[in-house]
Amino acid sequence: MSEQQSPALQAYAEASQACRDIGARVGVRNCDDDADWTAAERRANDLFVKAEAAGHSVDEILKAGRKQ
């Protein structure tokens, strides 16, 4: 990434990418049945809340999550 991100945004972006990677591996239709994806989704959701609590807007967080 060319622009510097806050640690909260970076953590969320990495967690979002982990969800996408697992989804690509197991197939989108199978994600809800995959324990790794479920754990990754919980982590991403938790980090989303933390990034929001750190003062980032929803748009800013979602944009960071799409950059990976």
Could you describe the 3D structure shown?
With 68 residues, the chain is mainly α. The chain has one domain (7-66). 72% of the residues lie in helices and 0% in strands. The chain contains three helices and no strands. The chain has helices spanning 7-26, 35-53, 58-67. Helix 1 (7-26) packs antiparallel against helix 2 and helix 1 packs across helix 3. It is elongated and about 35 Å long. The mean pLDDT is 91.
Which of globular, elongated, flat, extended, rod-shaped describes the shape?
elongated
The tally of strands reads 0
Kindly state the mean pLDDT as a whole number? 91
Any idea how many domains?
Answer: 1
Q: Radius of gyration, Cα only, in angstroms? A: 12 Å
Helix residue percentage: over 70%
The ordered H/E elements are HHH
Look at the helices and sheets and give the structural class: mainly alpha
Ends apart, CA distance between termini: 8 Å
Biggest β-sheet, characterized?
A: none
Q: How many alpha or pi helices? A: 3
Low-confidence stretches: none
Beta-strand fraction estimate:
under 5%
